[in-house]
Amino acid sequence: MANGILVTGGAGYIGSHVVRQLGDAGERVVTLDNLSTGFAAAVTHGELIVGDTGDRELVQKVLAEHEIDTIMHFAAHTIVPESVSDPLKYYRNNTCATRNLLQCASEAGVKHIVFSSTAAVYGMPPGGIAREDSPNAPINPYGTSKLMSEWMLRDLAAAGGPRYVALRYFNVAGSDPEGRIGQSTPQATLLIKVAAEVATGKREALTIFGTDYDTPDGTGVRDYIHVEDLATAHLDALAWLRDGGASQVLNCGYGHGYSVREVVQAFERITGEPLQVREAERRAGDPPTLVADARRIRELFGWTPQHDDLDRIVSSSLAWERAPKYGR
Ligand code: UD1
Q: Which of 34, 246, 252, 326: CA 20 to 30 A from 214?
């Protein structure tokens, strides 16, 4: 029985997609989420425990009562500009809460951890392509807060603690193709979510931040990965750890990018309507291009994306935006 999986942040955007896939695979899942940005209705499998990852007594109790041997850790604040204006909020909720979780995990004999990390640990890599061994140079407290968690995982594993896989996400987008769960995160700033809100009349216009970058059409280029493929990477990480695989830090992206204008065109293709856009200055801290060198996760896990298609990403985002089951 001692093979329960604790998913922190399982009521959030990415965590809920992973809970759904774990549940569909017959895994025993428990979600811990404080519902600060998540939704109870997003948890489609297993029990939801409402509480904080930083609450030591609660985490100890959950690990013991549910016989947890694996933790998938998503609970975090994720808004980059907010991390710049309120850095201690990010170090408390992302870094200190992770420290608490690891302390409890270590004491309870948890075997495996899959950690939700970010391409923000690279900052602005030369040439816009990030490999796992590219320098760690975050340019905002959000990226630093996640990098510090990666380092705790590394050092704890070296000291005999749980083995782990840290997945560094690139630009996650899209929703469950069957429309059961989706991205309803409040105050979204991410391009595809914002564009979907514009396309469905929830916002007036999309602001394109910068049209003079050294990229093919002058707008920023990113590696957009469908949340469904990202979720599958977590199940692959679980299989790897259960098979006795060594701890890993891996990029999660497709290895190719699209510009902001290409994303706008995809929306226009799919809706058949022009998308209202305004052109503006560059946004502070945005690199021109950020694309994953995504070879390692395929080689190691045999991870095979099923949704590597911008139009499918955009269609699923639009479908959710038109008919969200929770959120607005
Ligand atoms: C952001 C974070 C990154 C984090 C990721 C996931 C920054 C600088 N980076 O990635 O650290 O890992 O979210 O949480 O905040 N854009 C527009 N108009 C918009 C929104 C975006 O033109 O309204 C452009 C951006 O300039 C960029 C691209 O779209 O070129 C993608 O932006 P966004 O979706 O915000 O993600 P990132 O900034 O790449």
A: 252
Cβ contact 173:229 at 8 Å: no
- CA geometry: angle at 305 spanning 196 and 124, to 5°? 65
Q: Are residues 74 and 93 in the same domain?
A: yes
Which residues are CB-neighbours of 10 under 8 A, at least 6 positions away?
Answer: 16, 18, 19, 29, 31, 32, 33, 38, 42, 43, 48, 72, 74
pLDDT confidence of residue 1: 53
Q: Is residue 211 part of a domain?
A: yes
My answer on whether 156 and 305 are in the same domain is no
| Residue span of the structural domain in which 263 resides | 191-222+255-322
Which atom, in ligand 1's list, is nearest to the CA of 290? 39
**Closest by Cα among 328, 3, 312, 302 to 176:** 312
Does the beta carbon of 28 sit less than 6 angstroms from any atom of ligand 1? no
CATH number of the domain residue 50 falls in: 3.40.50.720
Helix H or strand E segment including 253:
none
- What local confidence, expressed as pLDDT, does residue 81 receive? 87
Judge whether 180 lies within some domain.
no
What's the 123 CA to ligand 1 centre distance in angstroms? Answer: 12
Residue 186 confidence (pLDDT): 79
**Cβ of 199 below 6 Å from ligand 1:** no
For 123, which DSSP code?
Answer: -
Q: Does residue 216 share a domain with residue 135?
A: no
Do 270 and 233 share a structural domain?
A: no
- Total tally of structural domains belonging to the chain: 2
Residues 295 and 243 in one domain: no
**Whole-number pLDDT of residue 40:** 98
From 77, 80, 202, mutation site for ligand 1 pocket: most ligand atoms within 8 A of C-beta: 80
Same-domain status, 231 and 109:
yes
Residue 222 token pair: 């990113």
119 Cα nearest atom in ligand 1: 12
For residue 119, the CA-to-ligand 1 centroid distance in Å is: 11
Q: Residues in the chain with pLDDT < 70?
A: 1
